[in-house]
Write a structure and sequence with these properties.
The protein has 207 residues and is of the alpha+beta class. The chain is built from five helices and nine strands. Strands 1, 2, 3, 4, 5, 6, 7, 8 and 9 form a nine-stranded antiparallel β-sheet that branches.
Length: 207
């Protein structure tokens, strides 16, 4: 018989009051089991008219506020977030049959945080951030390659490539975090943490 936590869920849900702690434990497990990009997530946004859009991005950090990813501030996702700061993240780890969904509002990270991460990237990725007009129409591949060469010449010192003003990070500050585990006969196990004034409140959900 499988071990259960105090709520009757599989022991992988543990008995933690803080969902950030449980997310960290689940992510560490995913890093050990997923072959490619365990930090990949689907990011859903909407524009000011309510039209939805989703795409895969990579989680690049967490802090006491939320979950951080980086992007071009002129990209479709960033334009959506400027119009409507509500967003949703969904991680799915197929090898573990686990999913985490995070809903909340976004805020830009500080310049200091963005600079620190940008400087940790490899040279070609930093150059790519300058060369790519993300989400805009591209006439042909040669146009992009030409811009890459242009910025390589401009920033030939690989240790000194400044962060572009149009590139930074967003932090999703959650008001709910749901943990999901696949069950037999579609009797899945779901635990949601809802933000409350005095911390987090846990509730069970039907499959």
């Amino acid at each position: 018989m499988n071990e259960k936590n105090s709520l009757g869920l599989d022991k992988c849900f543990l008995d933690l009051d803080n969902p950030f702690e449980l997310f960290t434990i689940w992510m560490e497990k995913a890093i050990k089991n997923e072959i490619n990009d365990p930090n990949a997530l689907s990011l859903a946004t909407t524009d000011k008219s309510g039209k939805p859009s989703a795409r895969m991005v990579l989680l690049k950090g967490t802090n006491e506020k939320g979950f951080i990813f980086y992007t071009n501030l002129k990209s479709k996702k960033s334009l959506d977030l400027k119009e409507n700061p509500q967003a949703s993240m969904c991680f799915y780890w197929k090898s573990l049959f686990r999913q985490v969904t995070i809903d909340g509002v976004v805020d830009k990270v500080t310049d200091q945080v963005a600079d620190h991460y940008f400087n940790s990237r490899i040279y070609n990725s930093r150059i790519g951030a300058w060369a790519s007009s993300q989400s805009e129409a591209l006439q042909n591949k040669e146009e992009l390659l030409g811009k890459i060469e242009k910025y390589k010449k401009k920033f030939s010192n690989q240790k000194n490539v400044p962060r572009p003003p149009h590139w930074s990070g967003w932090c999703l500050i959650p008001d709910s975090i749901e943990f999901w585990l696949r069950g037999e006969n579609r009797i899945h196990e779901r635990l949601r943490y809802n933000k409350a004034n005095d911390g987090w409140k846990k509730i069970l959900l039907y499959p």
